[in-house]
Design a protein that fits this description.
Length: 139
Amino acid sequence: MSSSQSVASTRLRTLTDVDHARLRKLLDSLPDDPAPLADALDQSQLVRPQEVAADVVTMNTRLRVRDTDSAAEQVYTLCYPSDAEPSEGFVSVLSPLGAALLGARVGEQVSFMRPDGKPVRLEPVEILFQPEASGDYTT
């Protein structure tokens, strides 16, 4: 595994078939596949949006995470690249952090490498909003 890949990319993730199809289309539109997201899509179990558990990070999910080393907490929203605003907590699924969070469950640790090469381990501790849990199966 290269240092740019997420350690978390080796875990089986739960993704909705809608998210999977949209993200595959996004990857197909890029000149190069971002390895962490491509791995996430390849190593995923697909479910219908109506069947995804409420503790799974799907696209447009807002969640609170805890850094397992420092115990610092942060709130993020996993989004598509066009909606990314890192300073506001809107994290692109194409980023190492976003790819690591995709398909994670509350209580599961995820790991990724920051651009400076430092490994980071996070644990989703609370889903604040998940579109599917609120009845939105198409966002």
